[in-house]
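Try this one yourself first.
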């Protein structure tokens, strides 16, 4: 093996002579003597007790017939390219900024000298492992510092409830808009209330996300029932409602949510009429005005739009309220029950883009009659 002195055959007792860069052995045989090199561990000729049978020769060899073995010389540093320089001890990985040490004079090899393992100047596995370990520890430290300033996935500042019934065309745009404008710590709960237009299949194909919950029902139970179900699953400090029909822009929902996040209100309604309104139907505007006036008379509030979709609540307060209505009676019920509490109610403008019944609008005159009945039932909270 390189780096180890070659053994003499046990069957001969010859005199060993050392040269400057190798070792030669002269042994006595019947035919004379022969000179063999041990520095490179070449094959021995002559009888002897060897472990490997391919090294044995049964007959002595005439020295005159043996070719002259050239003397082998160990390479010195000047013979080898600097990029592939070998040194006899462990050398740190080269750094261009650090000057190389002066070359050492060659050391004569001896048979009994125990050489150290050879290693390349440019590769030091020990220092490389230390360097990579330090880099990994630095990365972990930076990640830990960053993680300390990030809210965990099970904590949300805002929960947006999206009740859905047959809104396959508009729901993707609503969800995309929510992702664009809402804070990172926002939880979205979608309740598919028995849709039959492909909405349910589209929701089933969405990639799962930690901050999005999808609840699908086989039968339609109404908006109020869907909102109640989502409230039970909500975790946000603030809970807001966003319809899936694009009549309300999710960007303006931020204006509704912000006063609660700032601690200036417990309940905020987004009014469609504070900034002049944009509902082209006079019948619809008149119906909303009448229902809001009657609600104010029974609750003592001074709202301009009780039936608005954009509503936001303190999450803990909302989850403490027991709700019963399944359809659009949810609006007067929740209004009456928050009025019975000692909470701060605020109203802010919100944008509204009305659509007709041919475009999928669902509320009708029967729902207006149901709202009147709910106002009377829940007038005391």
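Now uncover the answer:
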């Amino acid at each position: 093996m390189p780096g180890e002195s070659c053994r003499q055959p046990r069957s001969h007792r010859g005199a060993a002579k050392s040269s400057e860069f190798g070792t030669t052995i002269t042994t006595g045989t019947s035919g004379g003597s022969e000179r063999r090199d041990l520095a490179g561990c070449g094959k021995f000729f002559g009888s002897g007790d060897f472990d490997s049978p391919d090294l044995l020769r049964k007959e002595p060899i005439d020295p005159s017939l043996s070719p002259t073995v050239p003397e082998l010389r160990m390479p010195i540093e000047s013979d080898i390219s600097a990029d592939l320089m070998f040194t006899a001890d462990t050398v740190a990985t080269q750094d261009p900024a650090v000057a190389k040490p002066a070359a050492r004079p060659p050391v004569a090899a001896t048979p009994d000298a125990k050489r150290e393992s050879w290693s390349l100047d440019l590769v030091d596995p020990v220092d490389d492992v230390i360097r990579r370990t330090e880099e990994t520890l630095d990365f972990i430290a930076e990640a830990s510092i960053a993680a300390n300033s990030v809210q965990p996935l099970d904590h949300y500042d805002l929960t947006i409830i999206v009740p859905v019934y047959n809104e396959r065309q508009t729901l993707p745009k609503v969800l995309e808009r929510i992702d664009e404008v809402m804070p990172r710590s926002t939880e979205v709960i979608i309740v598919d209330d028995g849709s039959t237009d492909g909405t349910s299949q589209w929701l089933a194909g969405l990639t799962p996300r930690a901050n999005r919950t999808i609840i699908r029902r086989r039968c339609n139970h109404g908006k109020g029932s869907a909102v109640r179900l989502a409230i039970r699953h909500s975790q946000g400090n603030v809970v807001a409602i966003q319809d899936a029909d694009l009549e309300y822009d999710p960007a303006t929902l931020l204006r509704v949510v912000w006063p609660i996040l700032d601690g200036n209100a417990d309940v905020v309604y987004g009014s469609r009429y504070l900034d002049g309104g944009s509902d082209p139907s006079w019948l619809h505007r008149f119906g909303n005005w009448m229902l809001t006036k009657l609600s104010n008379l029974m609750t003592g509030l001074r709202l301009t739009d009780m039936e608005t979709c954009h509503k936001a609540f303190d999450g803990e307060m909302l989850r403490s309220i027991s709700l019963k209505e399944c359809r659009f009676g949810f609006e007067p019920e929740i209004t009456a029950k928050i009025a019975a509490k000692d909470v701060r109610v605020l109203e802010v403008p919100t944008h509204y883009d009305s659509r007709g019944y041919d475009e999928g609008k669902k509320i009708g005159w029967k729902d207006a009659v149901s709202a009147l009945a709910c106002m009377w039932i829940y007038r005391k909270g």
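Discussion: The longest strand covers residues 186-193. The chain has nine helices and twelve strands.
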